[in-house]
Structure formats: C-alpha cells, structure tokens
Specification:
- There is one protein chain.
- This protein has 1237 residues and is α/β, with parallel strands linked by helices.
- Helix content is 49%, strand content 15%.
- It has 52 helices and 35 strands.
- It has a seven-stranded parallel sheet.
- Helix 7 (130-149) crosses helix 9 (169-180), helix 20 runs parallel beside helix 22 (399-411) and helix 22 (399-411) packs parallel to helix 23 (445-461).
- The protein is globular and about 100 Å long.
- The model is unreliable at 418-422, 839-850, 958-988 and 1017-1033 (pLDDT under 50).
Length: 1237
C-alpha cells in the first residue's frame, strides 16, 4: 500500500493526540509502523518513542516491520546516491535494538527500576511469571482456608465452616483466586466494601429504578389511557378485555408507586406483582400478544397503544419475573463481607510473601506505575524521556491498563514549571468491534473512555482545524480536528463480503457506542477491482434431528455437508478460484481456514474431514502439557530425577520409546525383594542373560543416561535421551509428526530458560513439569510454520489478526448467551454476589442446596453479564466474517422440531438468520439488495449493490465424489499413557461396582488398572465372551454402548408393548450418526434386530405399562466414610407389585444356559452393590429383584429363563451385602504393598 488514504494520512498526524478506530483490513498496523518510522526520519530520538503492544509476539512483529521499512529506505538512499541519508539510516537501523517496542508489562518494569524508592520496591525485583503467581495464590488460599477452619476463635471457625459448607470450598476458592489475579477488580471490591450496607442497598434500587422501572413509565401511561378508552367504549367484551378493565385500579396504583422518589423493598415487591399480573393479561407465556384481545382492541383503535411498547414491557417483566425475594439482599452482603474478609487475609499473606521474595506479578507492575505517576518529579522525567507514546490493539485493554493509559495521558500533558518541557504525544489505535478477550479481563468500554479523554485534551489545546499533507491543505471535520480518526476503508474484503458484513453487522450493532455495545461504521471497499473475479458468500445447512422427533433426517449434518462441499470447491473439475497478485488460480487446501467459537468442535470436525481424505490440522491448541509426547518425556525426566519412582519407570517402559508389553512388565514386577522396578529390571536382564530385545534395550539406554543426568545441562540431557532412544526416527512417520517435533523443541527451549533462571537442576525441573501437568496450565502448542497444503481449524479468537482467501465459519448455531444465574458472581457495582442459601439436605444422590433465593442483586449481576456476553458475541461474529478475502462460507446445523419446522436458532446464527428468507431451511437462495461505498480511481462512490447467497444442503443418500474413508492402522495409533500421581492417602474417592468386582476377582489387576492407571489386561475369558466376534468390524465394548443407547430410548420406540419399526429405525440412525466413527449398515441392522427381539420378549410385554416411567442410565452416589460409592443403573423399572426392579443389559456372546449361569456368578458382586444402592433409595421396599438381560439370547416370546437371570435380595441378605461392602472397602483402602500380599 504505497499511497495512503485521507483517513490514513490523518492518522499519521503528530501535532495532536490521536485515537484511531480502525475497521478490519484497513491497514492500522501499516499506519502505526509508518508513524513510528516517520518520526525517526524526522530526527526524533529513537529512545523517546514508545510503542506498546499486548503480546511479545506482536512486539516482535512490529519491530521486524520497522526494520524492513528502514531497510527499504536505506536501499532507496543508496540507489539515489544520497550518502548522508544512507549513513543516517544505517545508524538508525543499528540502534533499532534499543527501540522501546514492548509489552505494557515490560514498559512498566523498565520505569519502575528507575524509581524504586518512589515505588517502594527492591530495584532488583523479579517478575513472577503466570505459573509462579498462580502457584502462590493457590497455596495461599489453601493455607488461609485451613487456618480459618482451625482457628481457636470458635466464631471464626464456625463462620468459615458454614461458608464453605453452603457454597463449597471449590466455589469460594475459584472466586477468590479470580479476584487475587485481577488488581482492578480488587480495587473495585475494596471501594465497594468501604460503604455501609445501607449505602450499597440504596444504590441498588437507584440503579434499578433508573434503568429498569422509570423507562416503563411512559409505556405504562399509554397502556393506562388505552384501557380507559376500552372501558368507556360500547364494544362487546370477552373475558380477556373484561379482566383488563377490572385491572385499571392496579395500574393506577402502579403509576403512583413509580412516582415515589425513595422506593423500598415493599414498593418493588408490589411493582413486580402488578407487572407480572398485567403481563399475563396481555401476553401468552411465549411472549406473543393474546389473540383474543386484538379484535376488541382493534375496534377501539388502541392495539398499538397497548402492544406498541412490547420491548420496554418485556424488559421490566424479564427482570421482575426472575426475582423470588425482594428482602434477602442484606444476606448477600453479609456473605460477601465474609468472603471479602477471607480475600483480605489471602491478599495480606501473598503481599508478605512477595516482599520476602522481592517479586512483583504483572498486576503489581501496573499498580506501582500508577502510584509513582502521582509524583511530579517522576512525571517530569518521563515527559523529558518520552515524547511519543503509541499503544496498539487498545480495544483489548483491561480496566487497570486503561487507568494507567489515562493517567499517562493526563499526567504527561500537565504543564510543569519547566516551560521548555515538551508534553508527550499520545496515540492509541484499535477496533472496538474486535474486542473479544473479555475472558482475559478486556473491557470494550475503556476504548470509548480513552477516546473521550483524548478529545478533551485536544479541545483544551485548541488544535487547528486545518492541516497540510503533502503540501495540500485539508479541512478537518470536528471529530477529526480533536483526534477522533476512523479508518473505515478495507483493503482486504472483496465487495461482496464487505456488503454482506455491512448488511449483517450494520443491522445488529448500534449506530453509536453504548456501554458494552459498540457503534458500527459501514466498511468502505477499496479492494482492487477485477472484472473476471467476484467474491462469494454462501450458507451450508446441516440437519440435526431432535431426540424426541419421530421424523428421520433427510440431510447430512454440518460436518459431512462441509466435507462434501470442500471436495466440490477444491477437488472437482470446477474448483473455486481466488485472486493472488492480480491473477486468478484454483483454490488450494491451505487457502482455506475453518473458524469456530469453541475449540471442542474442531477435533471432531478434523476426524470427519480426514475420513474424506481432506488434509487438515488443529494448530496451537491449549494442551501442550497434556500432549502425549510431553507426558512421555516428563516421565523420562521424573525417572532420571528419582529412579525409585515405579510409576515413571512403568510409563517410560510402555511408551513409544521402548514399547515394553504389560506381560513383560508383570514378569519383571513379580519378586519378593522390596526394590524398585528399575532395579528389578536390571536383575531380570542379568537373571535371563538378556542382551537384545526391548527390555535389554531399556536397561542399556537407562544405564547410560542415568550417570550423565546429574552432569549434563537440561537441554543437552533432553537431546541425549531423545537421540539414544531414536525418538526422532520413531516419530517422523507418525500422525502429527510436525507438531510433536515442534513441541519437543519448545520443551527443550523451556528447559534452557528454566535452567538459566537460577539454581535449578533436574529435580526442580521434574517438579515444575509435573506441577504444570497437575494444575492443568493452559499452554499453547509450539507454533508450526507449516508449508503443507492443509486446512487449519482454529477458534475465532485465534484467527484475530489473520486473513485467508476462503473463510468457513463453522457451527454457527451453537453457544447461546448464558442467561443462567450463577451461584457466585462478581459485579462491578455491588461486588461479590452470592445467591442466599438458607438450608441444605444431604440425599443419597448428592448434596443439594435448598432455597437458593434469587434476589434483585443476583438478577442485576446476571443481566449485566448476559448483556456483556451478547455484545461480545456480536463482535465475535464481526471478527469471524472479516477474516475472509475472497470467499465466505457459513455453516450451521439446524434442528427440526416436532412440527418438522426449523427450531429457534441461537448463537451467531441467530444474528445472521434475519437477513434470510424463511425458505432458507429448504435450500431457497437469498438475494440481498442495498448500497455499497467503495474507492474507485481514488474517488469515493456509492452504488446500488445486490448479492445472491446460495443455500447448500446435502441429502443423506447422496455420495461425495472421490470419497475414500481413511482407516487408521493399529500400529499408527497413539498409545495413551495415564500420568496421574499415585496417591498414598485417599479422600473423596469414587468406588464403582466395576472397581469392587475387579478387586474381588483379582487385586493385582485392580492395582495395575486403578492405582497405576495401566489399561485393563485382556484375558482369554474376555476374548471368549466379549460382544466382539470374528465378523464384527467394531470392538465389542463399542457395539455394546450402541445397544445400551438404543435401549435407553426404548420408551420412544416401544409403544403400548409393540415395537414401532420406523421409530426404532430413526433412533438407531440418530445414535449411530452421533458417533465419531462411521457405523456400518451391517452393525446398524444387527442392533435393530437385537433391540426388536428384546421388545418382543414376554418380560418386556409384561412391563409395557411401566416402561414409559422407567429410569435409564441413572447415576447415584452414596457416602462411605470420606469417600463415595458409585452405581450407574441401566434401568430402574416398577413391576406389577409396585416394587422397583433393577435391570442390567449384557451384550456378551452367550451360547448356552451354562454361559448365563457363569456370567451370573461373575457379575454377582456388581449386582449386590446395585442391590445395596437400590435398597437405600427405596427403604420401604422389603425385597428387590435384579436381572441380567442377555440381549443376544432375546427372541420373540422368550421366557425369562431363556434370556435372563435374576437375583432376589431381601433385608436379611442386604445385611450380608452391606458387611461385605464394608470389608472390601477396608481392604481396598489399605496401602498398596499390603494389598498385593
């Protein structure tokens, strides 16, 4: 972009403070770099310019772009023969390393080190990284909680016991942790609780009255006057209009209450009562006007008066209808002050520890800088040092960063005694429409506040209303004169996409910024015009059938529909074309990106696309420390740090490094010596004189590496163990080899940084890695500069700042606004909001909180959060749409309701749907009409514009071209190794019937599987009687799950004791299509056949009348000392005696009655545990029947004996079962070495 537009030229001004609002693709980064370079070329000292970004990556990229720009100028000077300019530019390039291009945290740290006395810090302070700061918070919260509960002051101990009991220690821990890591929220909380309860509660009703109640006065007056007209008319009334007339005195009372200036709880309670009653008179439960009223209101010409202000009515009703009590907000404040006290205790302890460590976290850096800016001498020095301060991506600023920037703006602009001191120039740039990091604390409202501050400063400075650019005088609009510059022209989007973005975002976003909702300026298109190339926008609809629908699906779901469409636009004879450097070429896989709101849908989509032979990858997930390649090497490091760690050794042995089988491990394990597995392995090799094979290789390599581990540096040690075990050779042909290798190199770099940060060795490195895994730290995978021709699947958040020729916005009809009222919330006006909990009840299944009352404060906090979420979803949609250069594809699953019509849409699709005709669900294309502003030949023109949006659907019976399923080879599958730490003490463990059965049958298998985490071993028994047969194409456990899922829905397809074949067919398809694997028609047929046979047995016909009320897949917990017993019932159903029975489906292969008897004996422990639970659930029942139902033996009119076995339990038998469970529980909790002897 060699020529700058008028808008961009104004953004380059340096004679005033500037706030730049930049649309997507408008070249804001180019302008920022240009401004930086122009200042240098004008002779401004490089040390006096500060450019602040919010990530290190962005800072590095900006520094690189400045370097490239200077190098281009240097080349020009050489070509022109300007030696003086060449010397000057070379000097600038050499000094670029001292340029102040950094993150906000680095900027703060640099200034603080120059003013340690004013900041009251050690000048040699260390900056705590995210992990160290989080660890300090976690440990402090746990320590303070323990101290409070064990306090000698009984009142304190009881208070905190009740708090943790009512709200859960994890909930309190989470809320306190979130406050401790956000100093701005802490400041807000401190300010709130300086006030009295009366002040807070009074402020609550003032806000409620101003924002919710008073806006309804005028609409209510209109309704009141209309009903008077209705009353005085001579129309014939029905019951609805009569009720409305009789309600007039209540409305009159409500109008009087609204005029009250000092409203109390009783006033609002009465307002809520009248509003609710009036709403129910006028509207249905779905919010539609009552049809019985409209004809009568029409005759009086008052329909518009009554229903015209529906939105205002809906707003106040949605608030008051949620409030359950107007009198319990005081209890919220009481609870909040207890949590605040706990918060202060934690904060004091953390601050003491940070003083001891001479350490500051990121928030401290900003808070300390805020503090020292109050010193005039500090401001004076900074003004002299920094002439220009530029802040990029300002829309991602949080409140504390805004306060810091605002203070810089004002502090650095205040007149000083030294009249020669130049005031610093402030420049901020960003796009509020792209503020999508609310979860990180970003507050979109601060951009507007900062812009107003800049306008105010420029107004006071009486800046000129005319400037000269390239010797041309330019008259400025008022907002431009005072520094409000807007870059509205996009160089990225094709006209069709720009028009679509304007059509959608212009209709859902506000015209001007209000609170969380940002204003929208229409995008002007300046993409170079190519008459042979047009952009496109299209919609792909997938179909997802509701579980309660009896209509089978007609179209494929969104993932398969997208896969087929991708094959069409890339691999067909008529591919899609894109523009590159003025030329057209067919689209390639790497030209395409798929973006989605949530990361969890991308892995399943990747699996589907790979099944269609479409190359794709999910880059930079947040699972670095949980990746198998990292877990394997962490186990290696852990073993080297402690060779006696049996778990680490077993993990290494079974990993791809050495591939030791479970059988070999067991051979090594058995022995009388109380020595480690490593020592046993050495002895095993000596005893059997092993010189080759996996075990010998394992012992040989570890014997070589162990002596070196204490002498080598960490990076070299990692390289050594990788090379000696041939890791790079083993991984190069595996799936995602590129990512795995990049992650290993990232870990080596981390080891290098860790070692250089202090006295850190192998043991400390092992401890840190295991802690990072245990605390589930969110760390991105290593960045891959992939040159492969494949589609990246990323989140919308990850796509910000990127652009692609083809953008696919996936899974749009998902992720609606969370309108639920959380148990504990943080509100900027009222602090910590906890739903009052009056009592508790401990039941068999769970600990339930009763009377969790919803009050005005909880609704206000929830509505504010919902409003912020809704506004951010609008911005997420804008970011997603504006990543596309040439083609934009929208993808959504649409669900059909019981009437076979599309269900109500949600998420981002609900924001787009309104521009489509109703027929889009059936494939009807949409044609949009409007106008589009664009730049042509340097002139701004506005033209009529139309855009046709095709709607694409794929039928279930259609076949994708060139479709070949990918079958993953067994040897290429990644082996999952569980790395949970073995606990030597137990608490809050869950013991299932399967665990008890495994322990009873074989304590050794229990130890290996549940204590260590090794996969269960397969024996001949399982092989003989599993569901899996030679002609099966799926594992037995998987096929059995499908049978269970279909039987779980049996009330939907067994009607009046008879199997409805069409419904069964539909259910089987729904269950099978929801799986990640493609289910064969053969397996589907067998599932249908078997389930139908079950429905035709005498037992099912006998229970036909109670089947609709049966409970399926019910999970129950029961406390036992400090732990829980767990049972999951396949089916609980009532018999003709009114007693409950327990049914358990068994999908094993059984060939005779003897097989069923044998299985009955095998599962007896499981059934007895189910009996124990069931008798606790139904204590009045004197006996219980438990049945094993062998699905493969079911056939029409089969007797119970022919396909099932039953266990009968009475109260006496139950006593024996309870004693057995207690005995097994005592044994199972014994130390592991006792368990094995």
């Amino acid at each position: 972009m060699s020529h700058f537009t008028r808008e961009q030229s104004l953004a380059l001004l340096t004679d005033r403070h500037i706030a730049v609002t930049a649309n997507a693709g408008s070249g804001k980064t180019t302008v920022l770099v240009e401004r930086f370079v122009r200042l240098l070329l004008e002779g401004v000292d490089i040390r006096s310019i500060v450019a602040i970004t919010f990530t290190r990556k962005a800072a590095a990229e900006m520094r690189l772009r400045v370097a490239h720009r200077l190098e281009n100028e240097f080349v020009k000077s050489l070509e022109s023969g300007n030696e003086k300019q060449s010397i000057f530019l070379r000097h600038l390039r050499e000094r670029l390393n001292i340029a102040q291009i950094s993150t906000i945290h680095s900027f703060c740290a640099q200034i603080l080190r120059d003013y340690p006395v004013e900041a009251q810090i050690n000048p040699l302070f260390t900056a705590l990284d995210e992990y160290d700061a989080a660890t300090l918070r976690e440990e402090t919260i746990a320590l303070v909680a323990e101290e409070c509960l064990q306090s000698e002051d009984k009142e304190i101990a009881d208070t905190y016991y009740r708090l943790f009991r009512l709200y859960g220690i994890e909930t309190i821990h989470s809320i306190v942790h979130s406050l401790l890591k956000d100093n701005e929220k802490l400041t807000e909380i401190h300010d709130i609780y300086k006030k009295t309860d009366e002040e807070i509660l009074s402020h609550r009703f003032k806000i409620l009255d101003k924002n919710i109640v008073q806006p309804f006065r005028v609409p209510l007056q209109s309704i009141y006057e209309a009903i008077i007209v209705l009353k005085q008319s001579d129309v014939k009334h029905n019951s609805y209009s009569t009720a409305l007339v009789y309600f007039l005195p209540n409305i009159d009372e409500l109008l009087s209450i609204l005029l009250e200036t000092n409203k109390e709880e009783s006033h609002f309670a009465r307002i809520a009562e009248i509003i609710s009653q009036l709403y129910e008179l006028l509207f249905t439960t779905s919010g539609d006007p009552r049809k019985n009223l409209i004809p009568i209101l029409d005759k009086c010409n008052i329909t518009q008066n009554i229903f015209g202000e529906h939105e205002a009515f809906q707003r106040i009703y949605s608030f008051v209808s949620k409030v359950e009590s107007w009198y319990d907000d005081k209890e919220i404040l009481d609870t909040a002050r207890i949590i605040y006290d706990f918060l202060k205790r934690c904060l004091d302890r953390i601050n003491q520890e940070k003083i001891f460590l001479s350490a500051l976290d990121f928030n401290d850096l900003q808070q300390k800088l805020l503090m020292i800016l109050d010193y005039e001498e500090v401001r004076y020095d900074i003004q002299k040092r920094y002439s220009y301060i530029m802040v990029d991506e300002f829309q991602d600023t949080n409140k504390i960063q805004f306060r810091l920037t605002s203070k810089l703006i004002y502090a650095l602009s205040l007149p000083l005694e030294d009249k020669d001191a130049l005031h610093s120039n402030i420049y901020i740039v960003g796009d509020p429409k792209q503020s999508i990091y609310r979860f990180r604390g970003a507050d979109v409202r601060v951009f507007e506040s900062a812009k107003k501050a800049i306008i105010e400063l420029n107004t006071k400075a009486h800046v000129a209303d005319k400037v000269h650019i390239n010797n041309v005088g330019i008259d400025l609009h008022t907002r431009e004169q005072y520094g409000d510059i807007r870059l509205t022209t996009t160089f990225r989007l094709m006209p069709e996409i720009a028009f679509f973005v304007n059509s959608v975002c212009g209709s859902i976003m506000h015209q001007s910024t209000t609170g969380y909702f940002v204003g929208y300026d229409n995008t002007i298109c300046s993409r170079s015009y190519n008459p042979e190339h047009k952009g496109t926008v299209s919609l792909i609809i997938g179909e997802k059938v509701r579980e309660d629908s009896h209509t089978p699906p007609v179209h494929v779901q969104q993932d398969h529909a997208l896969a087929r469409h991708l094959l069409h636009i890339v691999a067909s004879e008529n591919p899609m074309y894109i523009e590159e450097k003025g030329n057209l070429r067919p689209v390639q896989w790497s030209d395409i990106v798929v973006v989605a709101r949530k990361n969890d849908v991308l892995d399943s989509l990747a699996m589907t696309l790979r099944n269609y032979n479409i190359p794709c990858y999910v880059p930079q997930g947040k699972r670095f420390y949980t990746r198998q390649e990292i877990r394997d090497i962490v186990a290696y490091i852990t073993f080297l740090a402690n060779p006696a760690d049996d778990f680490a050794f077993a993990t290494i042995a079974r990993s791809p490094y050495f591939r030791i089988s479970d059988t070999e491990l067991l051979d090594i394990f058995y022995g009388s010596e109380e020595i480690s597995l490593w020592e046993k392995s050495v002895r095993y090799c000596e005893l059997h004189q092993l010189n080759e094979g996996n075990i010998a290789q394992l012992v040989h390599i570890l014997s070589e590496v162990l002596p070196l581990s204490s002498r080598l540096s960490l990076p070299i040690l990692l390289h050594t163990l990788l090379e000696k075990s041939d890791w790079f050779l083993r991984v190069q042909n595996s799936k995602d080899a590129e990512r795995k290798t990049a992650n290993i190199h990232k870990l080596i770099a981390f080891a290098r940084d860790f070692e250089s940060s202090g006295f850190n060795g192998l043991f400390e490195f092992s401890e840190r890695l295991n802690a990072l895994i245990a605390t589930e730290v969110q760390e991105s995978d290593a960045q891959i500069e992939s040159s492969r021709n494949a589609i990246p699947l990323i989140t919308i958040h990850s796509s910000k700042g990127l652009e692609f020729p083809v953008v696919i916005v996936y899974d749009m009809n998902a992720g609606d606004i969370n309108a639920s009222i959380k148990q504990v919330m943080i509100d900027e006006n009222f602090g910590i909001i906890c739903k009052p909990v009056v009592a508790q009840q401990i039941s068999v299944t769970s600990t339930k909180q009763l009377n969790a009352v919803i009050t005005p404060l909880t609704v206000m906090a929830s509505m504010d959060n919902s409003m912020a979420e809704e506004a951010e979803m609008e911005r997420l949609l804008y970011v997603a749409l504006t990543r596309a250069k040439d083609h934009l594809i929208l993808v959504a699953n649409i669900t059909r309701n019981k009437e076979n019509l599309p269900s109500k849409t949600k998420g981002m699709f609900s924001m787009v749907e309104h521009i489509f005709d109703d027929g889009y669900f059936y494939g009807k294309p949409m044609i949009l009409h409007g106008d589009l502003s664009s730049i042509k030949d340097g002139e701004l023109v506005q033209e009529d514009f139309s855009l046709e949006i095709p709607v694409i659907r794929y039928f279930l019976d259609s076949e994708a071209e060139n479709y070949t399923p990918i079958v993953e080879k067994e040897e290429e599958r990644e082996r999952e190794i569980l790395l949970d730490i073995i606990q030597t003490s137990h608490r809050d463990e869950q013991y299932s019937a399967t665990k008890f059965t495994t322990f009873t049958d074989d304590p050794m298998s229990y130890y290996l599987h549940y204590a260590i985490g090794l996969p269960p071993m397969t024996d001949s028994y399982d092989e003989k009687y599993s569901f899996y047969e030679e002609n099966d194409s799926f594992p037995g456990s998987f096929a059995g799950q499908l049978i269970h899922s279909v039987m779980q829905k049996s009330p939907q397809w067994i009607v009046d004791g008879l199997c409805d074949d069409s419904r069964l067919e539909s259910i089987v398809h729904i269950v099978c299509d929801s799986q990640e694997q493609t289910i064969t028609e053969g397996l589907k047929h067998r599932i249908k056949r078997e389930c139908k046979a079950i429905s035709n047995t005498a037992l099912l016909k006998q229970f036909a009348h109670t089947l609709p009320t049966a409970k399926f897949e019910e999970k129950y917990y029961y406390p036992i000392e400090n732990d829980f017993l767990l049972a999951v019932f396949d089916c609980i159903i009532m018999n003709e005696k009114g007693e409950y029975e327990v049914w358990d489906w068994k999908t094993n292969v059984v060939r005779s009655k003897d097989d069923m008897d044998m299985f009955m004996q095998k599962y007896k422990t499981q059934l007895e545990m189910y009996a124990y639970f069931a008798m606790k659930l139904f204590p009045d029942q004197q006996s219980l029947t438990l049945r094993l139902l062998f699905t493969r033996k079911a056939q029409e009119n089969a007797t119970d004996e022919e396909w099932s076995r039953a266990l009968y339990v009475d109260k006496k038998y139950l006593e024996v079962i309870e004693q057995t469970i207690n005995n097994n529980y005592s044994l199972i909790r014994q130390p592991l070495h006792s368990l094995l002897h």
